[in-house]
Write a structure and sequence with these properties.
Layout lengths: L8 H23 L1 H10 L7 H17 L6 H20 L3
Helix pairs in contact: 2-4, 3-4
Length: 95
C-alpha cells in the first residue's frame, strides 16, 4: 500500500525550485566579481565604496518592500552578499 504524499510536498517542491533559481542567480552575480576586480584594479577603485553599498541596499530594500516582503529582510540578505563580495575583492585586488 502506498502512503499518501505529504500535504506540503508540492509546495516544498516549488520552494526547492525557487531556491535553486536564487542560488543560480547568486552564482551569476558572484561570477561578475572577477570582472569587477579587473575594473577596480585598472581604475584604482577601492574594494569597498560605502556610497555604492548604501545605494545597493536602499534600492533593493525599496524594491523588496514594494513587492510585499517584510522590511529589513532583503537588506540583511544583501548585507551578507555584499560582505562576501568585499572579501572576494580584497583577496583578489592587487595590494
Amino acid at each position: 500500500m502506498t502512503e499518501p504524499a505529504h500535504p506540503l510536498a508540492e509546495l516544498r517542491q516549488q520552494i526547492d525550485t525557487l531556491d535553486d533559481q536564487i542560488i543560480a542567480l547568486l552564482a551569476r552575480r558572484y561570477a561578475l566579481l572577477a570582472e569587477v576586480v579587473k575594473v577596480k584594479a585598472a581604475h584604482n577603485i577601492p574594494h569597498q565604496v560605502p556610497a555604492r553599498v548604501q545605494e545597493v541596499l536602499a534600492r533593493n530594500e525599496r524594491n523588496a518592500v514594494a513587492k510585499g516582503l517584510p522590511a529589513g529582510l532583503v537588506q540583511s540578505l544583501y548585507e551578507r552578499i555584499i560582505d562576501a563580495a568585499h572579501v572576494y575583492e580584497a583577496q583578489h585586488l592587487p595590494k
